[in-house]
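Need a sequence for this fold. Nothing fancy.
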């Protein structure tokens, strides 16, 4: 019975993976081309990275805030929360510097 459940679960998983491929398959159609320059591709990657980083930084600050609230005066927990907050600030500073370097290099190369 347990082996049958594994087989059924495997078949369902494979079906869910293959279904979008079958649904979106084109038979004899024109394949769209993407005309991106290397610069445009770099900008898209940098923008996507910036968005992901912003979300991670926001989560880091929320976690540090929760750590501060739940510390309840315990010096060790406050020290840990302060460390998380400082590392969050350091990460933001490094990201801003990195994004600035990319922007400066991009403007020089244009």
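Here you go.
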């Amino acid at each position: 019975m347990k082996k049958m459940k594994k087989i059924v679960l495997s078949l369902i998983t494979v079906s869910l993976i293959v279904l979008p491929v079958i649904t979106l398959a084109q038979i004899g159609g024109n394949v769209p081309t993407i005309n991106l320059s290397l610069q445009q591709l770099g900008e898209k990657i940098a923008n996507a990275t910036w968005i992901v980083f912003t979300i991670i930084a926001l989560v880091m600050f929320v976690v540090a805030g929760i750590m501060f609230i739940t510390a309840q005066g315990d010096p060790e927990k406050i020290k840990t929360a302060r460390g998380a907050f400082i590392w969050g600030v350091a990460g933001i500073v490094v990201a801003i510097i990195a994004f600035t370097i990319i922007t400066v290099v991009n403007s020089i190369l244009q």
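For context: The longest helix spans residues 75-109.
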